[in-house]
Amino acid sequence: VPAQFSWVDHRLVRDRHIDRCDAQAAALYLFLVTVADAQGLSYYSDAVLARRLSMLPARLAQARADLLGAGLIAYQRPLYQVLALDGPLPVEARALGADERGARIERLRAALGGAP
Questions:
Q1: Does the predicted TM-score (pTM) go above 0.85?
Q2: d(CA 103, CA 97)
Q3: In the chain, what is the greatest distance between 2 CA atoms, to the nearest angstrom?
Q4: What pLDDT score was predicted for residue 94?
Q5: Rounded-to-integer distance, Cα 69 and Cα 75, Å
Q6: Cβ(17)–Cβ(11) under 8 Å?
Q7: β-pair partners for 75
Q8: For 103-115, how does the pLDDT look when each residue is reduced to its tens digit (9 = 90+)?
Q9: Which residues contact 44 (CB under 8 A, 6 or more apart)?
Q10: What burial class does residue 113 get, using C-beta atoms within 10 Å of its C-beta: 0-12 exposed, 13-18 middle, 19+ buried?
């Protein structure tokens, strides 16, 4: 095993944390996991991250916001920290797709007697 080896926690997939990330957020997460020190810290600048990941600055900011919202990283410019993964997410805590949101809203309206 190389001295600078790192790995991705299998719970990222098994416990469905990755389901809350789009491809750009997942790419940023993978990069941060790969370059982080033993405490999960890295100091890569936005300019370097955007260049290395072939992202526009606004898209990088959105990917970072998605990871922050998913509880996968902490960020205080210029410092990133990859956070430990919590246990599996309850269904209600996962980000819902538009179809699932719509279905839940319709069920709620039906339960409320069709109120608008």
A1: no
A2: 10
A3: 63
A4: 47
A5: 11
A6: yes
A7: 80
A8: 666 666 666 665 5
A9: 31, 32, 35, 52, 78, 80
A10: exposed
